[in-house]
Every structure is written in C-alpha cells, then in structure tokens.
Design brief:
heterodimer; A: 257 residues; alpha/beta; Rossmann fold; eight-stranded mixed beta sheet; globular; B: 397 residues; TIM Barrel; two-stranded antiparallel sheet
Amino acid sequence: MPFQSQTIDINGSKLAFQRGGKGEPLLFLHGTEGLSQRPQFLDDLTAKYDVIAPDHPGYGQSPTPEWMDDVSDLAYTYLDLMKALGLHAAHVVGHSLGGWIALEMAVRSQERIGDLTLLAPAGIHVKGQQKTDIFMIDPDEQARLAYADDKLGAAAAEEANAVKYQDIAIRERIASARFGWRPRFYNPRLGRWLHRIEVPTLLIWGDSDRIFPPTYGPAFQALIPGAELVTLKNCGHLPHVEMRVETLAAMQTFMAR
Amino acid sequence: MKVMVFYLMPYAYLDQGVKDKYRSAWIVLPNTYFDPVKGHALYNRYLDELELCDELGFDGVCVNEHHQTAYGMMPSPVVTASALARSIKKGRIAILGNAFCLRENPLTLAEEHAMIDVITGGRLISGFVRGVGSEYFSLGQNPVYSLERHQEAHDLVVRAWTEPGPFAFEGKHYHFEYVNLWPRPFQQPHPPIWCPSMGSLETIEWAAHPDRKYVYLQNFSPRVAVGKYLNLYREIAQQRYGYEATSDRIGYGAPVYLATTDQQAIDEARPHIESLFNVFLPKFSEMMFYPPGYMSPESLLNVMKLKKANAGGVKIEALIERGIIFCGSPATVRAQITEAHADLGFQEFLCMLQFGTMPAELSVKNIRLFADEVLPALQALNVSDYRGFELPKQAAE
C-alpha cells in the first residue's frame, strides 16, 4: 500500500488526507464523488510524485467545521495546508469541484504552486452553456452520465444506487451542495481574476462530458494566460478514471517540463 | 376539536396525459399547460368554496405555498389569504405555511402577515415551513442552510412582530440595519405559529421547545406515520423538556371524501384522489423532494424507511387502508376520525375536501355533506374524548 492516512488541523478544520509516493509534491483535489474509492490514477502517480490527497471538509473522513461555507474557505484552507506541509512548487491537480478549488487557490496565491492540472473543472459559467444539474437527478443517473462509455456508466449507476443512502454518500452530497448549490458550481467573480494565473496550466476535458459540457474547455483557456487544452475523445466527466492512461500521459509530459 | 378546511388549489384541468410525457408535475412540466382563462375560473371557484365553508361553520380555511407546479396554484398564499381576508367573516385564515427562509428578506412576509392579521381583526394563523424539497430548486436557495435559515428567519420575524422598532437584526443569514414593522400584528404577542411538517425530527424538536410550543401539524401521511410523529411531539415535550404537551398543540390533516354510501364515496373520489397521487404528486427524482442537507442524514433515513416509493399506480383502496385519506359514508368517516382522535388527541383537524381533478359539483357536495353530517360531531370532541398519552415503555424506563 503506497498510501498512508493522516490528519492535520488547519484553522480548526480537521483535514484527513492520504499521502504516498516519493518525488515532487502533488496535491490532488477531488470532485464531488470524493475519495471513498481511491482512483487507480492516484496510485499510478505515486511512482513519480509525493501525492497528497485530502478529503475536502464534509467528504470522507474530514468533518465540516462550523464556519466553512464556500469554496473560498476551501481555497484558503488548502493554501494553509500547503504551508503547513512545507510544500513548494507543488503540482496542483483538481478534478471538477477540485479544479474550481485549485483555481480559487491560484488567484489568491501561487507562491507554493508549480503548475496546475485541471480535469473538467467547475468554477465559471458561460451563458447558455448549461451544466447537468447533478442535484436534480438521483445518484445512479449522475453516475451513469459521468461516463461516455455506456457499460462503464451502467456499472457505476448500479453501484451508486446501492450506496446512495449510506451515511457517507448522504454526507458527501450535503458537502457538494454546501459548496456547489448556489449558484451551481461556479463563482461569478472568478472569471475576472483568472488572468492572475502565471503558473503553467493544463486543462483536460472529455469530448463526451455530459456533466460539464466540453465547450467549457476553450472558455477556461481563453481566461487563463497560456493554458493548454487537451481534449480526450470518447471520454466523459472522469478523464482520470475513464481514460486514465491518456490522462496520465498528458499530465506527465506537461508536469515534466 | 377545531376543524378547518384545507385547499391546495390544484390546476384541476391538467391534461392527465402529461404523466406519460414528463417525469413530474413539478418544475419540469411546461407552464404552457396552464390556461389562464381556466385558471381564472378555478381560483374563483376555490375561493367561493372556502367562503362557503366559512358560512357552514368550519373553524377556518387554510392555504399554502408551492412553486412551479400544477399540484397547487399558490406560489404566494398571502395572495389567497388576502383575497379571503374580507370575505371569511367568522373563521380563522391559516397560511400553512409560508416558507420565510426561502426569501432573501423574510420581513416582506412578516409585513404581509401582519397586514392580514390587522385587516381580519386577529384571525390569522401563521404557518412557518421550510418548503418541500423541490422549492429549493424552484427558488434556488441552498437546502444545506435550510434549517439554519428557517430558525433565523423565525427569530427575525417574531422579534419584528413583538419588539419595539426600530432595531438592528444581526444574524448569519440575515442582517438588517432597520427592523421596524408597520403595521404590528393585531394578535398579541403575535399570530399563532404552526409548524406543518412531513415528520422531520428537527422540526418536531424545534416546535415542541418550551419557548415555542407551536402547533405541530402532520399532513398527508399514512396513519402509522401520523401516530408516530404526533406522539413524538408529546414524547419530546415530556422527556426532553419536562412538560405535558396539550392537545391543542396537535394537528392532523388529511383528504376527506364523503358520499351516501362507502362504495359511492370510493367510486366518486377514485379518479380525483388517484390523479393527486399518480399525476400531481410524483417527483422527478428522490433528490428533488429530499435535496442534500434538507434533512439531517438521520431524519432522511427515517423518512425513507416510512415512505413507500410512489412510482405511480396508487389505488384509492390502498390510500384508505393506509389511513392516508378518509373516504366513505358520513357514519364511516365520523367513526374513523373519532377513533383517530381518541387515539391521538389532536384538537385541530384539517380536512382537504377538494383534491386532484375533482370538479366543483363533487367538492361542493362533499363540503355540504361534511358540514351537515360530520363537522358537528367532530367539533364536539374534546380532550376528555382522548384516551391520553403514555410514554412508550422503553422511553419511560
């Protein structure tokens, strides 16, 4: 087992995180599906990186401190986490909600960030480009829509349906709503500050993403100076799961530069 | 017992074929299905029927709030309550309820309720609700903060109704520099507050608190759930707060349909009650009625246990058997409600005498039959007809 579970107190937020591997530090910020099932992708990354994967407050083993309300609270918490762990020039990788958190961190401080990899990130809204309202649909439908491949989607849907009223699933939906209900998964003020991002940034989007439409890729690219965009064919909202090898290849080329 | 009539004001002309085209009559059903000309007739018909109930001796009329649905045409129950404020001459007007916490500024509702209370000379009952889960989609508020906002909005409104203004209100969700209500409510210290609920533990605990002792109203639920939650109010009052809840704090609401014989009542009510459950009520998804954080994880699990999935295809026989509705001859229904009262001791009963697609011909017949044959017997029931409350064995030990 390359990963070890740890906790750390950041401003009263008792963050649980997994850490494993050796190399340059890599902070992985998960999406709304949490880390109850750690993606193979993270294990793969431990071969070259010191991977740090926290449960966001309200997910997994991390409780929600009473004062925590929104993604800006998360961003400051993770900037403080990076400081507490003494990370420098870290690769920050965020998926979906986690990508939004990474962006909110970067517009505040890039002091400890080496580069950004954003997998189908949330955070902005483009007029007329509707995202799927994951709160309106049941967990099985959400799981199904997350994949481009119907078979993978059907298997994920079955699994999501089986656990949807387990305590952790209920709590993680609450956490997702806390951060992403209103407005749905974006900060109206974020777009106007993305020009502050000076670190290299890679965007990865599935061309068949039915949760956040792939049209968001170019929209982010236009707002983040010098951002690169890799579009994966026949890939849904979970590029690091559905197209793990291709995603890792694109990231490692980018992060090695 | 006090008996009030409760209308949802459904869009009774709804094309019943929509159930095959849309997943729900809430939020996703296009409003092109609403014909304003028919709507005009319907609103006036429903208001006429509520006024008739007042003339026939009911203790009041009740309206409520739902958004973006054919299930009920009252996104603002303040509007219907205002329309009734001068025509309901004797009875109370109960807004059951208004979701203060869904508003950016709950004081607008506090002002409107105060106006109605003053206009009616103190006949308003003010229901405080959080709104059903789907309202968090239609109005956009975050359900995670629903309970916090509900309690804070309540504190704001009660202070606005009772404390001399101007004062500043400094809350987490609401912060207003100037609170100074004109008019103040007619009733002192403020209109009675009721808590209609589907059985959320948080709501029952909050309503039963000694600072509040608000009327707890269980609506539209299987008899076993009604018993469980009404007794839970009494149990929490006694066990946790050390006082005995009085029966005038306990309310029960259900659809009621009467005809000369049991079979005739079933035959007449069938298409309309089945439309209510199979067309007007089904939800888009489980999450639409129970969005994240709307209830604590514990309450959500409890509710899911007691609820059977409504996948359509509900039959009136099952609704009667589960005690969700009262339907039959006057003698049958009188006996059923009297027995329920003996068991649970509710001193407030709300009857829904129109539901689903039911036309005026039947709802007026139902109202008159109820007023003649059932209402007097129920109004005569008092606390001495209640067998009384005993703590469940386990809890008493």
